[in-house]
Amino acid sequence: MSLDTAEKQKLIATHQVHETDTGSVEIQVAMLSKRISKLSDHLQGNIHDFASRQGLLKMIGKRKRLLSYIKNKNVQKYQDLVKKIGIRG
Questions:
Q1: Which of 3, 41, 55, 59 has the fewest Cβ atoms within 10 angstroms?
Q2: What local confidence, expressed as pLDDT, does residue 17 receive?
Q3: Which CATH number covers residue 41?
Q4: How many domains are contained in the chain?
C-alpha cells in the first residue's frame, strides 16, 4: 500500500523541519505511520495475505528504530512527534 504523490507532499509539508527538508526522521516516521495504517486496513479484509503481513512487520520495526533514535537525541521532539502523529496510545 503505497502513498500517492499528493499524500506524500501533504505529509512533507506538515512535518518538515526546514523549507527544503524532504527526508528527515520526522517525515520518515510520518510516512511509515501512514503506510502502516493503510496496510493494516488492507489486512483486516485480507487475512491470508502473509506477504503483506511480513512487510507490515518490517515497517513497524523500522518505525520503532527511527522513534528510538529520535528519543535518544531529543525527548521533547519525540513526544511532540508521537502526539502529532497520534501513535502510542
A1: 41
A2: 86
A3: 1.10.287.10
A4: 1
Cβ atoms of 43 and 32 within 8 Å: the answer is no
Enclosing domain of residue 71? 5-85
**Which sign, positive or negative, has the C-alpha torsion 62, 63, 68, 73?**
positive
> What region, left, alpha or beta, does residue 59 occupy, with left being phi > 0 and alpha being psi -120 to 50 degrees?
alpha
> By the 8 A CB rule, do 34 and 7 touch?
yes
> Are residues 52 and 39 in contact, defined by beta-carbon separation less than 8 angstroms?
yes
Q: Taking a C-beta distance cutoff of 8 angstroms, is the pair 18, 27 a contact? A: no
Which portions of the chain are predicted below pLDDT 70?
Answer: 1, 89
- SS3 of 29, please? helix
Q: What are phi and psi of 76, to 5 degrees?
A: -65, -40
The set of cell numbers assigned to 43 is: 489486512
